[in-house]
């Protein structure tokens, strides 16, 4: 059995940020557990054609690690390079355990530590446990009749098979969300025919991308210039919350802009009607792309809306609801992730053998989206209601680290063994979150999205300004916690 002061589950940006913050706090007795055979998370895993970030790169980076980005919206290869640079810069590679797929974790109340069991048979003991597996790590593939009969190739965008040559093939993409909006323009010119199965259309806004010149990249290497650009972008994006929550006229103005963009890019009225959402913009994730609509307008691309969706799959292709059979060579599942009810994929047993799945049976919730009663010394990075639809998720992750490190430092400084949020503090916080959520477009915009759990509660999003969340996490509130 291996023993560490802190264990981090997941090696993406959340895990890397936790590790660097521990090192800066003088805590080096930690280990990162990664289920895959490589270090790095999202931007090392998601290698599908067209993969890129949809937040400006200078903001979609960690505040302590500036980078000379080549363009405003970085593509996957550059994001992977940034990830690998972080790993090398802070010496994280020697602190990771690869192939450590967590099977279950349990709290030992007598010893005040967590036991972490992996599928490979290894067991780890730790005082503090940080789950940084991320909300977009459990791919979802719908179950259609006959799927096992299909003789062609299938894979999820999360696990793109680069050994398969899709060029000149008949391809079906199931889904029309953020990943599909990047894959479709990337492969449409190269395939014989592309069938896109859309359950509901998304709102799309143009992507204001640009390449950075040599001088601009040099400026990005200067910390003061980098910091200034980050804050300019941050405050520009932060104003979007006004539309999402506080101002119906503002959101209708954005929606009219999106409608004009749709009309300009899709001249065919029939296709344009299929692509026009029937819910308020922002209720679902807004796509940012200037190439998605033109790709769908190509002669070799067919958009199938819900009424012409998939009824079943057979050995040679797809049978649609309206009775058509489509011969395809490849089916790509661009069907998203279990980002709400599946925030943590493994069983977690807390005090008195309380099971996290039972606590979250109605809907996932946590104090600051990070900690829970009956689960001492457990912290969830990007937990319930920490998602942010208008700015960089990394800003929220860094804010969470303020709270997590404050908890760990407080326990260690006082010579204690555990910290646990009080039940009434979690209830008060959760009530506030869902009270504020009622005013947002995510709750009242007329759609059902992956932001919501099966209960109908909006679980993925924080209902306000990101700086409000930052202020909430800036300092530990001892009165909200039990220290022992």
From TrEMBL:
It comes from the Bacteria. Keywords: Monooxygenase, Oxidoreductase. One of its GO terms (molecular function) is monooxygenase activity. SUPFAM superfamilies: FAD/NAD(P)-binding domain. Pfam families: Pyr_redox_3. This is Baeyer-Villiger monooxygenase. It comes from Pseudomonas atacamensis.
């Amino acid at each position: 059995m291996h023993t560490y002061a802190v264990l981090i589950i997941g090696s993406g940006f959340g895990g890397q940020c936790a590790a660097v913050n521990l090192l800066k706090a003088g805590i080096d007795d930690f280990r990162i557990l990664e289920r895959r055979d490589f270090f790095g998370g999202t931007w090392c895993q998601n290698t599908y054609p067209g993969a890129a970030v949809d937040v400006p790169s200078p903001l979609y980076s960690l505040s302590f690690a500036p980078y000379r980005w080549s363009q405003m919206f970085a593509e996957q290869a550059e994001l992977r390079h940034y990830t690998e640079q972080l790993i090398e810069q802070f010496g994280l590679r020697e602190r990771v355990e690869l192939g450590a797929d967590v099977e279950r974790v349990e709290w030992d109340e007598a010893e005040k530590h967590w036991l972490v069991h992996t599928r490979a048979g290894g067991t780890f003991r730790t005082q503090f446990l940080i789950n940084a597996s991320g909300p977009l790590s459990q791919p979802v593939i719908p179950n259609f009749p006959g799927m096992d009969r299909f003789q062609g190739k299938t894979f999820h965008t999360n696990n793109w098979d680069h050994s398969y040559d899709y060029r000149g093939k008949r391809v079906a993409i199931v889904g029309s969300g953020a990943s599909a909006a990047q894959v479709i323009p990337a492969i449409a010119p190269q395939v014989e025919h592309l069938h896109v199965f859309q359950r509901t259309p998304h709102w799309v806004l143009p992507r204001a991308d640009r390449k950075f010149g040599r001088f601009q990249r040099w400026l990005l290497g200067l910390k003061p210039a980098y910091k200034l650009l980050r804050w300019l972008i941050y405050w520009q994006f932060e104003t979007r919350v006004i539309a999402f929550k506080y101002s119906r006229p503002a959101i209708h103005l954005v929606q009219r802009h999106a409608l004009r963009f749709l009309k300009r890019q899709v001249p065919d009225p029939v296709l344009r009607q299929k692509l026009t959402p029937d819910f308020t913009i922002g209720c679902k994730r807004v796509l940012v792309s200037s190439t998605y609509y033109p790709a769908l307008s190509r002669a070799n691309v067919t958009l199938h809306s819900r009424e012409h969706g998939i009824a079943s799959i057979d050995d040679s292709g797809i049978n649609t609801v309206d009775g058509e059979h489509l011969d395809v060579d490849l089916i790509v599942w661009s069907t998203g992730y279990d980002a709400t009810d599946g925030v943590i994929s493994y069983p977690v047993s807390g005090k008195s053998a309380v099971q996290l799945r039972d606590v979250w049976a109605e809907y996932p919730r946590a104090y600051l989206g990070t900690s829970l009663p009956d689960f001492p010394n457990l912290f969830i990075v990007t937990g319930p209601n920490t998602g942010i639809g208008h700015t960089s998720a990394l800003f929220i992750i860094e804010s969470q680290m303020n709270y997590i490190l404050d908890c760990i430092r407080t326990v260690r400084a006082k010579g204690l063994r555990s910290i646990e949020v009080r039940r009434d503090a979690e209830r008060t916080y959760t009530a506030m979150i869902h009270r504020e959520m009622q005013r947002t477009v995510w709750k009242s915009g007329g759609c059902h999205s992956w932001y919501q759990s099966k209960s109908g509660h909006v679980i993925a999003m924080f209902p306000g300004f990101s700086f409000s969340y930052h202020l909430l996490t800036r300092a530990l509130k001892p009165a909200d916690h039990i220290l022992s």
